[in-house]
What we know:
By secondary structure, the chain is of the alpha/beta class. Helix content is 41%, strand content 12%. The protein has helices at residues 2-7, 10-18, 32-39, 55-67, 96-102, 105-121, 152-168, 199-204, 207-215, 229-232, 241-251, 266-272, 274-284, 297-312, 318-335, 348-356, 408-414, 431-443, 472-482, and strands spanning 21-23, 44-47, 72-75, 126-127, 172-178, 220-223, 257-260, 288-290, 358-360, 370-374, 397-401, 420-424, 448-451, 463-466. The strands form two sheets. An eight-stranded parallel barrel has the order 1-2-3-4-5-6-7-8, surrounded by four helices. A six-stranded mixed sheet has the order 9-14-13-12-10-11, with helices on one face. The longest helix has 18 residues, at 318-335. The radius of gyration is 23 Å and the shape is globular. It starts with a helix and ends with a helix.
Amino acid sequence: MSEFIAEHSDQGLHRLAAGTLLVAFQGTTVPGWVLRDLENGLGGVTLFGFNVADAAQLSTLTARLREAGEPVISLDEEGGDVTRLAYHVGSPYPGNAALGAVDDSELTRRVYRSIGDDLARCGVNLDMAPSADVNTADDNPVIGTRSFGSDAALVARHTVAAVHGLQSAGVAACVKHFPGHGATRQDSHLEIPLVDASLELLRERELVPFRAAIAAGTKSIMTAHVRVPAVTGLTPATLSPAALTGLLRGELGYDGVVISDALDMKAVTDAYGLAGGAVLSLAAGADLLCLGPLPTEDDIRRIVSEIVAAVLDGRLPLARLEAAAERVARLRTWFGTPHTGQAEENVIGLAAARRAISLTGSASPLINPLVVEVDTPPTIAVGTVPWGFTPLLPQAEVLRVKPEDADVPGILERAAGRSLIVVVKDAHRYQASRSVVSALLSARPDATVVEMGLPIWRPEGVTYLATYGAARANAQAAAELLGV
């Protein structure tokens, strides 16, 4: 330890520890403590919808961050349902399920190039996207339309296209959620999900897109708080040396930046605590720790102190922090490298959404339409992003109902002599939603059903429109097709 003291000052160790953190904060301006921490070595920030008012405000915010250092400035801009830039209005891009449904890799590259251009103009240098999860569980509560699909080869080719698109705009991709969140039936925001797959199956399915992304040069990969007994035992992958050092670094040969999923999620905090989870994730092989929106300034201080203490008492090798710092330094160097390539026109999102729509039956001319949107509770990953037709159909009456409170006889009376359009999102996951739709269709088989999630539950014998996502672009494309 005397050699350590001689070579590394207390201040230097604190800078190394702080350099692993991506912190969050409330509001649309940067708090003073974040600026001070950036000056003292803080790794960077993760932004959320509540940090973004519009593009001009975000550009001002990121410029202020860069005045205090060379931070990693990240957010989750997946397009589709998960958006931060368009959190208050809905994304102009259709999202991965729609892109997978079209299955045109060049279209996916162009969409992600446009997303990258949007981010770069606002001063964001790392996008926590794309999702490379192979969504094999129909009732997956957290991935769903965030995945390109259920076929590993399809997901791999579109993941590669997304990485190329983002990084051609000078924005680092962060391919997620390693080693795969698509086979889960639990939400890691709330508990530790289980991926019950053998190592052989993982290699054939979950790992295929990650292997392709690594070959494509992705600058970062995000971990998943999932338990994969064949690899991690009882430990979530984010905290598992077998997953991050053995599988990702060793077998897959990845030497870029590994970023943890948000450590304030209950899959970590309930069992390990925030600071304890931070130390374990670093020891497992993570380089940057996404802390999520819940930790406060005092929590950040405790996390840094715990990382320092773990180095001093031997739980966390100093070399592990130094390796993390070196990888993040390489990433910052890449940020400063000029990137070439043609910017994408911002109309590509709507064009992609139009191509993704699937129509079964025929869209009849509408008469004084009543649009009934069956409400679906938001997931934590998505947040309260607007969805549906309300801002796009000024000439139609739009009625939003909660399925448990829906007055079916009253709706039918209101729709008498009118065209009826029933809008749902992931109806296969909500029995109450299916019951409302079935009751309406039993009296009005001429109604049109619009599914804005995954089109898994399809009522027979009716006009059925699938958008493969609930972004603003998806809704606009559907409205055009319906002629509303």
